[in-house]
Amino acid sequence: MTSHSDSQRHEFTVNSSELLVDAPILAVRRDSVTMPGGTSADREIVEHFGAVAVVAVDEHERIALVEQYRHSVGRRLWELPAGLLDFAGEDELVTAQRELVEEAGLEAQNWSLLLDLVTSPGFAEESVRVFLATGLREVERPAAEDEEADMRFTWLHIEEARQAVMTGRIVNSIAIAGILAASEVIAGRSEARSVDSPFDLRPTHMAQRRQQQGIAPDMKKIGQQ
Fold first, then answer.
1. What residues are labeled active site?
2. For a designed S-S bond to 109, which of 66, 123, 135, 143 qualifies (C-beta 3.0 to 4.6 A apart)?
């Protein structure tokens, strides 16, 4: 899927960088980037820790979904169990296993990789690793706080979930990608990958800066170290 040789491609060099906002779960920086022809242009980038999500499928081909209030859109959205990669050095699979317990009260015997996606590449670093989890069993869900205390849980058959995507009942982009990818695997048209596949898209800028500042293991806790 390339149209030019490497020797013909422009290198977008960063000439300078300025941190504009530094908040617990995101930051904003401005990079001055060399454009083709030698000019420079500013690009504002939302820094992010990255995240994981889980398509947990039971023996009846039902998917575990959670409904959570999202203040950015002012409504509750049906989503996959998911969470930030906000603990320094933590493996993506470990994060996914913890989030599945915390949000859905489930553990899984079998794990594989469905896909990696970049949610908003025009301005944000956020990338998400979406896992497929099977061989499920129910476990106790720990007490939740903030929006998660209002979270609802449901099972939805994979075909009904696909229809919910196509009719607009499910609009979260990560859930859409995960549901459609899982349906391909369940139907036998595609295969999931190994969880050991490199996550080259995992963001590093904010995580590295926070760790250099001694903000670890929980990198959200700025001003509390």
1. 148
2. 135
